[in-house]
Specification:
The protein is of the alpha+beta class. Helix content is about 40%, strand content about 10%.
Length: about 230
């Protein structure tokens, strides 16, 4: 399992912080929870949910089933989690899962003015600066999602909307993770990305508008992927 979670310093003031079993259980839940929707035995497991079984979890955590049962009831009583039993297993939902995935001070939403761009905005996920700090020095390109400040750099330097940022990012990611550059190690991937953006001259600021109608998403994507020049 890959990815990351965010633990704020205010966790030290958490109501169960003085109980080692509660801390161990809750942190284990956070690391095991789905970061995206999946299907398990024909049942949808949503983001922030985890499949739970008393025997297996008690063995993993090194506590008794009764102690585990008590801890679960405590987390439910303080509204940290909810549980939903099925005929095969129990699904635990971490109520404030997003608090452990995002930084409150930074918005990942960039407003746009047409419905096409709004759709593109919702389809682009970003890596937060917290994860960016975990970039391994001298390692291969580590990010599967574009970091927030990388996307902001593309906006400030090129004036691109999210549809173009997504295409350029995917080209960059595929080259360095799946293509010729997959085994290349760099000290500073932020600098590598910025150089890539500054040298990118195919895309201009905005798609061409004909007859006062914005270019459709399909046409924009087709031209972009073919390397067509988008004219202001």
């Amino acid at each position: 399992m890959s990815g990351w979670i965010k633990i704020h310093r205010k966790f030290d003031n958490w109501g169960w912080r003085d109980n080692p079993q509660m801390v161990s259980l809750f942190l284990y839940m956070l690391t095991q929870a789905n970061f995206e929707k999946t299907i398990w035995h024909g049942i949808e497991i949503e983001r922030g949910q985890v499949i739970f079984g008393f025997l297996k979890w008690a063995e993993t955590l090194g506590i008794s089933v009764q102690s585990l049962r008590t801890c679960i009831e405590r987390l439910k009583s303080t509204h940290e989690i909810t549980t939903k039993p099925t005929n095969k297993f129990t699904i635990i939902t971490i109520v404030k899962y997003e608090d452990y995935q995002q930084i409150e001070e930074i918005s990942t939403y960039i407003p746009t003015h047409d419905s096409t761009n709004n759709q593109q905005t919702t389809n682009i996920q970003s890596t937060t600066p917290k994860e960016l700090k975990k970039e391994k020095k001298g390692g291969t390109m580590p990010f599967s999602e574009i970091p927030i400040d990388w996307r902001q750099f593309a906006i400030e330097q090129k004036g691109w909307d999210d549809s173009i940022i997504a295409i350029v990012w995917e080209t960059f990611r595929e080259y360095w993770q799946d293509g010729k550059g997959k085994n290349v190690k760099r000290e500073d991937w932020t600098a590598t990305y910025k150089k890539w953006i500054l040298k990118e001259n195919i895309y201009r600021n905005k798609p061409k508008i004909e007859n006062n109608q914005p270019m459709s998403a399909a046409e924009k994507d087709r031209q972009a992927r073919q390397g067509a020049r988008i004219i202001t």
